[in-house]
Amino acid sequence: MRGALASLMVAGLALAACDRPTESEEGQAVVARTAESDLPAWLSPTDGTDPARWLAGREAGHPVPAGSDSVRALQDALAEARTVFIEDPRMIANRTAQLGQMLAEIGKTERSASLLTGFSAVAARRGRHKSLYGEMCQHYFNTRARGIDHAAALALLADRFAPGLGPGEAP
After folding, report:
1. Taking the model in full, what pTM does it have?
2. CB-based contacts of 105: which residues, under 8 Å, 6+ apart?
3. Are 126 and 84 in contact (CB under 8 A)?
4. Of 52, 104, 154, 168, which one has the fewest beta carbons inside 10 Å?
């Protein structure tokens, strides 16, 4: 029994050591990648690209300047979304791009800023309770795929995510 316990302790220490950097790794920093001239398919957790700039570039089909109107509009929309959704701006941008692709595939192209502001308005009705952006995207897509227009789909989302509340009311 004592030998088995000792073996488990040695194995545990060996596994714990795996998380420590080796001598050659110490002093090396993890560098976040930024995209200035290309648009990655998705923003990774270590990507330093501004999510608004990436999303604007995806929508335009090419990189756009950092100070452009489309980037500023998406920065504002992502900042608003960050206050009402659990996910971070990078993940919200990825989900918005994914939703945009899915909508385009069924012939329902929509602007990213319109999606973001519409979803944020729905989520804001919940007051201090944050929503899941990915979940809202999926429900929105399913509703739009049934042929319902943008405004009606947002109204249905509002009924689903903040039932019984009138416009501007908080729980």
Report:
1. 0.74
2. none
3. yes
4. 168
